[in-house]
């Protein structure tokens, strides 16, 4: 096993272990999306420490992972490697290997001997948990190597509409009907499993239905990165250009993966400009809004934001019910509404989890030869429900929010009023109201004997601000997901 394989294997095993230790939700939110880890020091003196470097896309995630998981990751890697292993969390572009890359400032400035350049830092180590394999579609004119299918199941018809995806769906429908005109680029962001990939496939499918000869390409950002690396190594820049610059519609998933990949960003910038100039449409997805992206060149992020940026939120109860009913029907096993409500009330995080729960219920009904009922669903989802039903306590909310904003838990009960303390306290009150059954006076009591009107004020203030302030909204999502763990 060579060094890269050894490091990759170590990280893979570390992830497997973490996946068994952490609630699925936390693993999926914090560990699964991480780009590749590199490990330095292996193979040297067996007593010396290894340094595992994980690249994280922004300060926010770095701080959270450092506080919540770094010690455990270090302990696991130390055990698996049999050597002390220190964890470093690097903002993608600032680590040494990325900084060492010479980056051409324009396509014309590409070095004459690109093979002398090292590949993108992550090229040697693939992420352990890959993003879902990305189907690609190109019509007949496309280079043969890139001919694959877009997923025909992911259409507007199979996408359940709701408040959570209303804006994004409307914008996507608009683009599908008249690509290249308005909302270009369309930037869709939101948490894991909320339907971003589904939505952009739906645009591709719709356009191809109208115009079967349209050149449509769907790909995950990781594939773009490896395409750039491959073409640089082979010096086939024309192929790269031919593939991307000639499209009518480019659908690119998870652009946060471009963080720190300067050469990739350069090529994407070129493709982006070429496509917009010829009125081809670009739709991107990401886990955060353009200004929240870190280590992506500002000239790119400002362009990302120049068309329309829309969020997809976690689905509300009615939408979750509708999704369950529709998907059960598609499986040929209708789900009674009361059962759908029961499942939807208990599985709240995202659509992917909802699908997982549905699969369990359907399989349970099939193998036990029983009708689908609430009792059957309760039995089928026993493990999941025991986790969900773990009460979220106000104390846990106070601790999580205090950790997150780096204040003392004691400040949650104190009378201190500086904004750096008062605001996290208001956020904790808001979450306490949202995530627990406690009344306003009870919450006030748990926050150092405050009056219920103070709690009400905080709940209204944070609730109102979250509608307008994307950064706050994002932070609240992260806190909610972590607390629901
Ligand atoms: N509104 C919806 N109606 C029907 N199915 C949905 C809806 N939203 C999501 N899904 C389904 O949920 C699953 C997860 O969705 P998808 O892969 O599109 O999420 P995502 O936001 O791209 O997540 P990630 O960032 O983790 O890739 C898919 O099977 C998708 O078809």
UniProtKB/TrEMBL annotation:
Record-annotated Chromosomal replication initiator DnaA C-terminal domain positions: 393-462
InterPro entries cross-referenced by the UniProt entry: AAA+_ATPase, Chromosome_initiator_DnaA, Chromosome_initiator_DnaA-like, Chromosome_initiator_DnaA_CS, DnaA_C, DnaA_dom, DnaA_N_dom, DnaA_N_sf
Stored PROSITE patterns: DNAA
Record SUPFAM superfamilies: P-loop containing nucleoside triphosphate hydrolases, TrpR-like
Pfam families documented for this protein: Bac_DnaA, Bac_DnaA_C, DnaA_N
Membrane-spanning segments: none
Protein localization: Cytoplasm
Residue span, AAA+ ATPase domain: 182-316
Annotated region described as Domain III, AAA+ region, given as residue ranges: 149-365
Comment on protein domains: Domain I is involved in oligomerization and binding regulators, domain II is flexibile and of varying length in different bacteria, domain III forms the AAA+ region, while domain IV binds dsDNA.
NCBIfam families reported for this sequence: DnaA
Family: Belongs to the DnaA family.
HAMAP family on file: DnaA_bact
Protein name: Chromosomal replication initiator protein DnaA
Organism: Pelomonas lactea
Gene: dnaA
């Amino acid at each position: 096993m060579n060094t890269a394989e050894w490091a990759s294997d170590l990280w893979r095993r570390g992830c497997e272990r973490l996946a068994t230790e952490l609630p699925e939700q936390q693993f999926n939110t914090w560990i699964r999306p991480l780009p590749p880890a590199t490990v330095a020091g292996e193979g040297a003196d067996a007593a010396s420490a290894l340094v595992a470097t994980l690249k994280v896309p922004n300060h926010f995630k770095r701080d959270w992972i450092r506080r919540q998981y770094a010690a455990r990751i270090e302990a696991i890697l130390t055990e698996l490697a049999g050597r002390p292993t220190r964890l470093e969390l690097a903002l993608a572009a600032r680590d040494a290997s990325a900084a060492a890359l010479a980056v051409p400032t324009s396509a014309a400035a590409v070095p004459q001997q690109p093979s002398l350049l090292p590949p993108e830092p992550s090229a040697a180590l693939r992420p352990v948990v890959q993003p879902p394999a990305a189907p690609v579609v190109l019509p007949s004119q496309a280079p043969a190597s890139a001919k694959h299918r877009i997923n025909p199941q992911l259409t507007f018809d199979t996408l359940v509409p709701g408040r959570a995806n209303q804006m994004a769906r409307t914008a996507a429908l608009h683009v599908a009907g008249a690509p290249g005109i308005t909302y270009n680029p369309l930037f869709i962001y939101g948490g894991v499993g909320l339907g971003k990939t589904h939505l952009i496939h739906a645009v591709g499918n719709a356009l191809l239905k109208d115009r079967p000869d349209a050149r449509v390409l769907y790909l995950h950002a990781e594939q773009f990165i490896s395409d750039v690396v491959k073409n640089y190594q082979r010096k086939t820049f024309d192929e790269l250009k031919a593939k991307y610059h000639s499209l009518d519609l480019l659908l690119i998933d998870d652009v946060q993966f471009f963080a720190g990949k300067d050469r990739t960003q350069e090529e994407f910038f070129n493709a982006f400009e070429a496509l917009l100039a010829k009125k081809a449409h670009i739709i991107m997805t990401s886990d955060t809004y353009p200004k929240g992206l870190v280590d992506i060149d500002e000239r790119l992020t400002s362009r990302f934001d120049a068309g329309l940026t829309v969020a997809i939120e976690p689905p509300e109860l009615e939408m979750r019910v509708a999704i369950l009913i529709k998907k059960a029907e598609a499986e040929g096993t209708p789900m009674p509404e009361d059962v759908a409500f029961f499942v939807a009330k208990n599985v709240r995080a995202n659509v992917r989890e909802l699908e997982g729960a549905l699969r369990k219920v359907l399989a349970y009904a099939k193998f036990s030869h029983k009708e689908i009922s609430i009792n059957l669903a309760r039995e089928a989802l026993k493990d999941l429900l025991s986790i969900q039903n773990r009460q979220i306590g106000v104390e846990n909310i106070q601790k999580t929010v205090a950790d997150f904003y780096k204040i003392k838990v004691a400040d949650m009960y104190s009378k201190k009023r500086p904004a750096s303390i008062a605001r996290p306290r208001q956020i904790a009150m808001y979450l306490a109201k949202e995530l627990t059954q406690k009344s306003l006076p009870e919450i006030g009591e748990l926050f150092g004997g405050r009056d219920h009107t103070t709690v009400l004020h905080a709940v209204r203030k944070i609730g109102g601000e979250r509608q307008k302030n994307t950064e706050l909204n994002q932070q609240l999502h992260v806190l909610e997901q972590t607390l629901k763990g």
